[in-house]
Amino acid sequence: MKINDKIKIMRQCKGWTQEEIAEKLDWAVNSYTKVERGKTDIKLEKLKQVAKILEVDISELIDSDEKTVINFAENCSHGNNNHCIVLTESQCVHELEKSQLIVEHKDKEIDLLKQQINDLREVNTLLKTKNN
After folding, report:
1. pLDDT digits over 98-114, tens only?
2. How far apart are CA 37 and CA 113, in angstroms?
3. Helix H segments across the chain?
4. Which of 54, 98, 101, 116 fits a 20 to 30 Å CA distance from 92?
C-alpha cells in the first residue's frame, strides 16, 4: 500500500476531513490533498509531521511491505473516537487463530449444554413416570 493511501485511511479513521487535517498540519488544503492523492512527493520532515498528527510511528507510513494490513474500527469515517490499527500479516493470522479457538471453545460449550439439557429431560421424564 502506498504512503498516500495509508495517510488517507488513517485520516479517515480519525474521522477528520482533508480540511481538518490540513489545518492541524498548518498546511494549505490543496497541498495536503495533493499528498493524499499521490500527486506530489512528501518530504521526510513533512511525513514526520503527518505521522505525529495521526499518532502513528513514521515506519507505519513508509513501510513498503505489501503485506501490511490496515484495519480500522467500524464506521471509521464517522466520529473521531476510532483508532487505526496497523497489523502485519502474521499478526492477522495470529488474531484469526485466536478467534478460531474461541469459536471452537464456544461450540464445545454449546454441545455440553445440549447434552446437559437432554440429561435433565431424561431425569424429568423418569421423575414424572415414577410419580404416576
Report:
1. 889 999 999 999 999 99
2. 55
3. 3-14, 18-25, 29-36, 44-54, 58-62, 89-131
4. 54
CA atoms lying within 13 Å on the CB side of residue 69: 10
Q: Phi/psi of residue 69, each to 5°?
A: -115, 135
Q: pLDDT value at position 88?
A: 64
d(CA 70, CA 106): 28
* Amino acid of residue 83: H
Which H, E and C letters describe 60-71, residue by residue?
Answer: HHHCCCCCCEEE
Q: Which helix (H) or strand (E) holds 29?
A: helix 29-36
Contacts of 24 (CB under 8 A, 6+ apart): 16, 53
Q: What average pLDDT does the segment 5-30 reach?
A: 92
Q: Cell numbers at residue 44, please? A: 521526510
Among 121, 3, 130, residue whose Cα is nearest residue 58? 3
Find the mean pLDDT for residues 29-43: 92
Q: Specify the DSSP class assigned to residue 56.
A: S
- pLDDT top residue among 132 and 53: 53
